[in-house]
Amino acid sequence: MAPRKLAAGNWKMNGTLASLAQIDQLLADAVPGCDVLICPPATLIHAVAAKGIATGGQDCHANASGAHTGDIAAAQLKDAGASHVILGHSERRTDHAETDAQIAAKSVAAHEAGLIAVICVGETETQRDSGATLDVISAQLAGSVPDCATAANTVIAYEPVWAIGTGRTPTDAQIAEVHALMRERLSERFADGADFSLLYGGSVKPGNAAEIFAIAHVNGALVGGASLKAADFAPIVAAL
Ligand code: PEP
After folding, report:
1. 12 a known binding residue?
2. Spans of all domains in the chain
3. Which of 74, 150, 178, 200 has the smallest CB count inside 10 Å?
4. Can you give the C-alpha Rg of the chain in angstroms?
């Protein structure tokens, strides 16, 4: 099985019911040669899923239920219509001090609930400048991806922290280097490591998507800002 191509939109803490019009427009505009996923805020998961587009959460708790005010369980995401969940996004690693071990535990919970985990890894600018990128990515993969991961239940997104929302992107060679490393590490550890979908994320726009998608082992994108408007996201989907 070759890695599936995936264009995933992360709406973060943006969007209200009025934003559903963007889904309608996306469904009308995009002619996907790939899987298209929208990860809206939890308040919109049910409504987005009802449009018939693949829908994901942006986080889940590692526990199945219980006294965790404000958190959401993987099974609740599934119940609302989600098929995927983003885990370990750098904003969660930073804002909520999430560790690799916590992300791995959340991934297990996601898998047990029947969700596909989109596990994010990525170096900070300081780490890149100090030459630590490949070590950081290797460590995050080792720590965040659980042993029960398979190509069918897990997608990996490489998102350099310094490229998220900044308009800056790594060079093609830098993206290629990290994606080749991720493929190698996954293949060393998992029998189907060659089949995991590997996404690039960080300032993907209509103008740079095709070039990024042409890089070896880039099987799609995790898109933040440019996924909020169908007029921006549809051409990215079309480029994959
Ligand atoms: C993200 O937050 O996952 C992301 C990639 O954001 P942006 O596309 O806005 O850089």
Report:
1. yes
2. 84-203
3. 150
4. 16
- Cα(191) to centroid of ligand 1, in Å? 30
Query: 160: left (phi > 0), else alpha (psi -120 to 50), else beta?
Result: beta
What CATH homologous superfamily does 84-203 map to?
Aldolase class I (3.20.20.70)
Candidates 37, 208, 223: which one to mutate for ligand 1, based on the most atoms within 8 Å of Cβ? 223
Ligand 1 atom nearest 120 alpha carbon: 3
CA of 206 to the centre of ligand 1 (A): 13
pTM above 0.90, yes or no: yes
Whether 123 is a known active-site residue: answer: no
96-118 residue pLDDT tens: 999 999 999 999 999 999 999 99
Amino acid (one-letter) located at 160: P
pLDDT tens-place string over residues 66-103 = 999 999 999 999 999 999 999 999 999 999 999 999 99
ipTM above 0.95, yes or no: yes
